[in-house]
Amino acid sequence: MDASQYKDYVLTLLFVKYVSDKAKADPYALIDVPEDGSFDYLITLKGRPDVGERVNVAIRKLAEANNLQGVINNADFDDPTKLGSGKDLQDKVSNLIGIFQDMDFSGSKAEGDDLLGDAYEYLMRHFATQSGKSKGQFYTPAEVSRVMAQLLQIPASTPKATTVYDPTCGSGSLLIKVVDAAPHGLTIYGQENDNATWALARMNMILHGNETHVIEQGNTLADPKFRENDRLDTFDYLVANPPFSVKTWKNGVEKDYGRFDGFVTPPDKNGDYAFLLHMVKSLKSTGKGVVVMPHGVLFRGNTEAKIRQELVKRGYIKAIIGLPANLFYGTGIPACLIVLDKKDAVSRTGTFMIDASKGFEKDGPKNRLRSRDMHKIVDAFVNQKEIQRFSRMVPLKEIADPKNDYNLNISRYIDSSELEDIQDLRAHLQGGIPNRDLDALQPYWDAFPSLRAELFKPLHDGYSELAVEKADIQTTITDSSEYQAFAAGTTDTVAEWWASRRKVLADITRTTRPNDLIEEVSEALLEAFRPRPLIDEYGVYEQLMSYWNASMHDDVVLIVGEGWDPVAKPRAARTWKDKNNKTKYEDSHFVFGTGANAKRWVMDLIPPEYVIARFFPEEKVNLDDLVVEQEAAAQAIEEYIEEQVVEDGLLWDAADDEGKVSAKLAKDRLKAAKAEKAEAEEIEALNHVIKLFAAEAATKKAVKEATIKLHEQALAHYGKLTTEDIQALIIDDKWGGTISSRIGAEVTALGQALVARLLTLAERYEFTASDLDAKAEELAAKLRGHLVAMGVSE
């Protein structure tokens, strides 16, 4: 099946398993799970000929008990067109139930980390990616959702009764991210037009622990569900990612419900401002909202220009944030975030603008905001920071100026275009490197005050020349005391930051909330690097967060779930049968023996290299020396064979058709050569290569034996590890070592960037135009001389 089909089956069983586990663990659970509608009941159906039909009945009973008809019972587990028929359907449904059987969702979200929600989100992203434009718009990328939630700046003390509303809620992911940003939760309201997507939103809410919610189905513009008579209800917070530029937005719209009071009616063929004005009207007098819109709303003319002018004059638009292109699944065009804020709107004197269009990473066919990009956007907005070529507060006077005429296109106010690398004609004619190009590297000279004078000396007005050889630029930089001090200072900053947070990490228990933990640790890292010159604190932050997302988060979840000591123990590798009934083995750290009788061990938390490095350093050095000997023995064979396996070479007759020589081939040829009374040199060469093969075999055996012994020692040592040992291995060696190395790479990259730029400038202006003319004349003279010598010219 494609994603649009299998998601229904997977999400349905995910839902049934989740609510069943919750009901068993919590007698006060809000979802009523009847005995014959539970996941435990589904387990009893595995293998039955009528398993598909009975699963349908069980899920329908669960839906009826909770008024979820049409929400969780849309997948047909007895559909032969999708699942096959007879034994095929029976096995597929039974196996699918079995996949979920061993999972335990009773503790989901108890530790503040939404693993189940992450699984749901993964499926939604996969579905949106595969389904393309037709289904992409119902899912807002998680990174954009998180930014939008933080832009609302919800105070920590906000009570749960505070309302949040999404008039085009899709699968509900945006609403969930906003609720997660409020420590006490919020009261959720939403509306979604598409019936299948509305069902997803309902399931999503329950899977994320938001059982109490009001998500209505229907067309928001034609039939808004949240209204009193002909006036729209209002809410404290609002988020939305409406469909872009709907040409048929007026279909079924008979009333405007006060949306357009004080504004002109949006154009018939474009619904962007119809949605935006609906949202403005849906906010309380102190309400805040963040809305995704196409860039066109910022600059299109005619009716939309009049609406935009009125919104700006009323002060409703607090900020505009330009996002990278190709972020969203429904479209590849760039979008923007419009931050609405009615509180003190009349006294607003400007709009804060951010051009975040350059900050992203490629993720398959789409772009994605990185942790550093998200944090930089939020920091700039919250602190109203003016960052060159990124953000600034644009006064209302400037927006209203006739030359701009309320055009809000961000490029009018922030120039984020790439700086042009200008070729200097005077430098090409007279020599030297323009000081203008060197001045552009001022952040480096601020960090390394003496380095510019070491590298360059004045040549003539406005130009300099290298004071060192071009080939020595890199060593001059990296060997300078200031660069070394900068690198050491970075290492010290990392060490001080890590030491200041070590106790927080060592105190991880079952009550630790992983997301809160990384927020504390990462914010401290940002603060530690903000005062440091040159190095970008957001680049350092990204190094930590990318490691957190890739590995450290999973480690913390393991520790939270099982505790330091239990999770550090080795476990036997898992096995399973593939479709051909062949036994497959999980990738293992240690394997003793071969085949089915081999003992395979997996270390989830502490890979063996850390135990070996800390407790068996001498043994590791000895093993490394043996590996070097083995490689040298193999190299000696390769070189000797390459030298002698040539036509009429001493090993020519020992080689196979591909020119390869093995120990067996050499021995066979030696036996034949002796019988033939071949030349002594060939016999000597064969004896020599046989000795080389024997030496290699001996080193291989030594490496194998030493490896097994070291692995046995390390495996045995896991049982001797104390809690303090485990924490040292994880916190200091694994986490701390990895993060320190990653941040060190940032310093290396900065040095490499400076070297690359200076080499470019040095090579660009190495020769003047007259130098090149002289060289050309010299080469032409040489050519003429050669032609004369050849007799083809006089």
UniProtKB/TrEMBL annotation:
It comes from the Bacteria. Residues 1-97 form the N6 adenine-specific DNA methyltransferase N-terminal domain. It is an enzyme of class 2 (transferase). Its EC number is 2.1.1.72. GO terms for biological process: DNA restriction-modification system; methylation. SUPFAM superfamilies: S-adenosyl-L-methionine-dependent methyltransferases. Keywords: Coiled coil, Methyltransferase, Restriction system, S-adenosyl-L-methionine, Transferase. It holds the Pfam family HsdM_N. One of its GO terms (molecular function) is DNA binding. It catalyses: a 2'-deoxyadenosine in DNA + S-adenosyl-L-methionine = an N(6)-methyl-2'-deoxyadenosine in DNA + S-adenosyl-L-homocysteine + H(+). Residues 623-683 form a coiled coil. Residues 113-421 form the DNA methylase adenine-specific domain. Belongs to the N(4)/N(6)-methyltransferase family. This is site-specific DNA-methyltransferase (adenine-specific). It comes from Actinokineospora spheciospongiae.
